[in-house]
């Protein structure tokens, strides 16, 4: 025990002597030379120290240095500029009077990683241990085994002049020997968001010399949680697995630099896939994607080599629920509904080039339910296009194409579509909230327009639409019943009939020509044998209103007593008003006709209907 005590006392005495003697034996010039020697041995670059250098003993022997610079290659910015540097000294060499730094801590350091158009890099070394490793020589020991960065930045600038900066709150890189593994971990801040980052590379020396190495990496942050593992080579190509998730894909993409507008969709997401990463882009060969509660699988390719990123691929899902997106693509709002007057912004649709094909066994959008669906979303050269290849819907099929093109402050809009064998009584309420038509329908539509908002665009629409409906009904009015009552009591029947009932028909069809936001028709008719109806007039698309006049022709079972009733359709799309022509009712009343005749202009025939002449047989029946 006594010997142990004496040994400890001797060690303590030696340390005290070291503290007293070494400072006098190691002037500032020797300290500078020791640090410079090791940094040059590592990088092969001349090192400049512009500030003071001193030795501290608490808590461990440490070099304290200010203003350290490691230059870049000729013509490039410095590789490293650090306001403060602390170098922890090895104790064993120190006991024999030799100064060796085992690890460095840099405070307020700026690391500049630069690439030139001639493919030179600021981190290319011609001499030194790192250069030896790049050339496949691993015999030399690492001059410094660990590096810690505190309150520092790393800035990367590419050959095109684009740059990005990562702030390092506190991060440590450990690499004790060229043939050993390397690890790095710490807290970084990029674009005002913090993240914990860790990387482990099994064979860093092989990687530096152009070979391959296994690696693992993890990011855990406010915007993104990501883990990846696989094999990486010296050209920056990674093959492995990736898992990523976050609370909001919209916010994550914004963080990555894509200018997306505000919105409630593109929320929680998760991606799992084999991955290949190289300088040209990212390939997800067997991706499992979850977004806004939807699950899909397929393959995606994200190309980064061009001026803009490009995303292409295919995704398939059993069910896709797009209800989360409906509020953002609504064309009208309020009650009574009006077209949106806020500016159409398709820049968010053009943040990258797209060519993505999507298929689903079922697609849901609020009340709308479609069966098997195939669609393509694409954008390029300022043009966004949505193509619905085919969708099973309401007993029939839908096909269509919508194109948006940015032109100055406005948007050019083009849409084509057709539907076949669709149940109108179910589809119209779900798509448009219109409950007044039933039957099996088919039709085509072709429209185009230009405007800064949906409201402005609606005033410029041009095109045409053709619709046919079979075995259907007008819901909300029974024209046959109303006409029978009017025939008996022309003036009072209008008020007794009110609204309600159904007008069934065998066939109905309409053709509209759309000009300047007005959809005009001279060919709208329906027929059920005893009742036939023709309609002409227009619908103001901008005002969402109707102004049409019609003629209903009804006859009894033997067709012997035909009766004709003029009527008008007016009001808004949401609640259209269908009512008999008032003047025509008065003309049909024997008691009221003389009163109307007293207000007539000279030579005016008040016995004739306002829309079309009443047949002689009908006039005689009055």
TrEMBL record:
Comp. bias (Polar residues): 605-622
Record-annotated HTH merR-type domain positions: 1-17
Pfam families: AsmA
Family annotation (InterPro entries): AsmA, AsmA-related, MerR-type_HTH_dom
Region named Disordered: 602-622
Protein name: Cell envelope biogenesis protein AsmA
Organism: Labrys miyagiensis
Gene behind the chain: amsA
């Amino acid at each position: 025990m006594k010997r142990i005590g004496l040994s400890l006392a001797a060690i303590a005495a030696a340390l005290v002597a070291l503290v007293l003697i070494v400072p006098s034996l190691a002037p500032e010039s020797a300290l500078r030379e020791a640090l410079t020697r090791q940094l040059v041995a590592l990088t092969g670059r001349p090192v400049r120290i512009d500030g003071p250098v001193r030795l501290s003993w608490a808590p461990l022997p440490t070099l304290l240095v200010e203003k350290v610079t490691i230059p870049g290659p000729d013509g490039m910015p410095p590789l490293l500029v650090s306001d403060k540097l602390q170098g922890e000294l090895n104790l064993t060499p120190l006991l024999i009077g030799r100064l060796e730094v085992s690890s460095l801590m840099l405070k307020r350091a700026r690391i500049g990683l630069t690439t030139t158009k001639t493919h030179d890099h600021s981190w290319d070394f011609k001499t030194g241990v790192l250069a030896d490793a790049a050339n496949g020589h691993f015999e030399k020991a690492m001059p410094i085994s660990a590096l810690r960065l505190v309150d520092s930045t790393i800035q990367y600038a590419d050959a095109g002049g684009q740059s990005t900066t990562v702030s390092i709150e506190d991060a440590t890189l450990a690499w004790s020997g060229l043939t050993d593994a390397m690890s790095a971990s710490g807290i970084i801040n990029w674009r005002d968001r913090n993240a914990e980052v860790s990387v482990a590379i099994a064979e860093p020396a092989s990687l530096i010399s152009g070979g391959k190495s296994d690696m693992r990496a993890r990011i855990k942050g406010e915007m993104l949680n990501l883990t990846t593992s696989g094999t990486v080579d010296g050209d920056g190509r990674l093959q492995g697995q990736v898992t990523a998730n976050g609370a909001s894909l919209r916010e994550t993409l914004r963080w990555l630099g894509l200018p997306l507008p505000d919105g409630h969709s593109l929320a929680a997401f998760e991606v799992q896939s084999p991955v290949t990463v190289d300088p040209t882009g990212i390939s997800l060969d067997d991706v499992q994607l979850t977004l806004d509660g939807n699950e899909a699988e397929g393959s995606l390719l994200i190309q980064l080599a061009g001026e803009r990123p490009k995303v292409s691929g295919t995704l398939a899902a059993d069910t896709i629920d797009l209800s989360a997106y409906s509020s953002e693509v609504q064309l009208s709002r309020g009650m009574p509904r009006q077209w949106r007057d806020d500016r159409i912004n398709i820049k968010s649709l053009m943040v990258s080039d797209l060519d993505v094909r999507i298929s689903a066994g079922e697609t849901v959008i609020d009340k709308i339910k479609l069966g098997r669906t195939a669609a393509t979303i694409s954008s390029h050269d300022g043009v966004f296009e949505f193509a619905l290849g085919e969708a099973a819907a309401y007993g029939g099929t839908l096909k269509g194409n919508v194109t948006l093109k940015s032109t100055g402050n406005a948007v050019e809009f083009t849409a084509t579509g057709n539907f076949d064998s669709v149940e109108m009584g179910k589809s119209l309420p779900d798509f448009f909230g219109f409950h007044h038509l039933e039957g099996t329908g088919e039709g085509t539509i072709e429209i185009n327009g230009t405007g800064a908002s949906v409201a402005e665009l609606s005033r410029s629409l041009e095109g045409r639409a053709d619709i046919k409906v079979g075995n259907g009904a007008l819901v909300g009015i029974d024209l046959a019943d109303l006409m029978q009552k009017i025939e008996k009591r022309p003036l009072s029947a209008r008020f007794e009939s009110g609204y309600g009932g159904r007008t069934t028909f065998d066939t109905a069809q309409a053709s509209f020509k759309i000009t300047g936001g007005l959809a005009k028709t001279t060919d709208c008719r329906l027929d059920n044998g005893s009742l036939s109806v023709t309609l002409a007039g227009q619908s103001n698309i901008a005002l969402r209103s109707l102004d049409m006049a019609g003629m209903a022709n009804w006859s009894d079972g033997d067709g012997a007593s035909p009766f004709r009733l003029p009527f008008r359709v007016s009001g808004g799309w949401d609640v259209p008003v269908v009512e008999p022509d008032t003047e025509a009712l008065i003309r049909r009343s024997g008691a009221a006709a003389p009163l109307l005749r007293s207000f007539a202009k000279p030579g005016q025939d008040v016995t004739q209907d306002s829309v079309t002449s009443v047949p002689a047989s009908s006039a005689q029946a009055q």
